Amino acid sequence: MIRLRKLALVGLTVALVAALSSGCGFRRKKYENPIGKDTQQPDKVLFDKAINDIEKGRYEVARLTLNTLMNTYDTSEYMAKSKLAIADSWMREGGSHALAQAEAEYKDFILFYPTMEESAEAQEKVCMIHYKQMEKPDRDQTHAVRAEDECRNLLLQFPNSKFAPRVAQTLRNIQEVIAEGEYRVGAFYHKKGSFPSAANRLENMVTHYPLYSQADEALWLTGDAYAKLGPRFKEQTVASFQRLVKEYPLSARAEQAKEELKKLEAEIPEADPVALARMQYEQENMTKKGMMGNFWGVFSKSPDTHLAAKSGNPATTSLRPSIPVSVPTPEQIAAAAAQAAQPTTTDVGVTTVGPNSALDTKDDARLQNQQKKETKKK
After folding, report:
1. Could you tell me which of 114, 148, 155, 112 has the C-alpha nearest to residue 128?
2. Would you say residue 106 lies in a domain?
3. Number of domains in the chain
């Protein structure tokens, strides 16, 4: 009985509130469907059908439906979503042809709707198209370079997008692969004794990609290469070892670099606090690779990025080749040309021959030769 009374009281309260609301003008205005009372809008029906087809793998059918929507209802609120869905269908389909079509559609979407949040998403997907096609560091780097360019474009065009932090990490992964390829080439030059090429390649790589996981080892090889080029490159040798000690203080090569600086009677710098904190963070957040990952990595076409940095700003420009130290600089060439252009002494001196010279006291050599020839004929 008590429960029934409570229910009756609640029902009465609800009825009173409804009556007061209707009497005081708080009634909400019902949305008027422009098509009809009990029908769905046809552009929404077409869009939902296309999305259903994409989810079930019927990509061609979905694209035909979306194109019908866009051509028939050119003022529909689903225009932008339809254009993006067409690109997504190509990307889901996969294959080199489909991915090329997806990239073109995403670029088209960014061109037509540059201020929409979905444009940043489209740019991220263009980056991922090339990222997923990247190969190992010792193979073709075409897709790695393209992926780096596309990810960098997102960070420059949409810096405040919610996709920016994720793309920044993707860019660090990409640059780890590119830097690894440069490191392997430089290490090969060093091993073969081509020290100018090794120093040039490794130093340029570390300067451009300081977040690379083996940047400290690259700096060690750089300093060693300069040292083997002779005393003329002592300044570059010292600078390489000092940079290793300062910017990579937790490196296994840091103590060795300090010993080399002592031998060169050079200053040993203090560790940079920011660099120290960054290396500590990287060691604490390093991605560990399991046993199966090591096993299947040999057979995988994709590069290994588990050592890529987890913090720091990735490089915002592309890697450009630099000039080796063995090639003369424009200043050196100009100095050599100026020295060659200086006038030289070309005067001819004349000296008078005295009466007791060899020309007067000795026989004519030509007569002696003539006499020898006549003797031989006889």
Report:
1. 148
2. yes
3. 1
Statement: the pTM of the whole predicted model exceeds 0.85: no
Residue pair 241/231 in contact (Cβ under 8 Å)? The answer is: no
The three-point CA angle 266-272-277 to 5° equals 145
| Structural domain for 76, as ranges | 41-113
Determine, yes or no, domain membership for 87.
yes
- Inter-residue contact 97 to 116 (CB < 8 Å): no
Q: What is the pLDDT of residues 160-213, one digit of tens each?
A: 999 999 999 999 999 999 999 999 999 999 999 999 999 999 999 999 999 999
DSSP single-letter state for residue 352: P
Q: Which residues of 292-304 are buried (b: 16+ CB within 10 A; e: fewer)?
A: eeeeeeeeeeebb
- Rounded Cα gap, residues 157 and 119, in angstroms: 10
Cβ within 8 Å of residue 312, ≥6 positions away? 172, 210, 211, 278
Distance (Å) of CA 127 to CA 116, 149, 166, 308: 18, 8, 12, 17
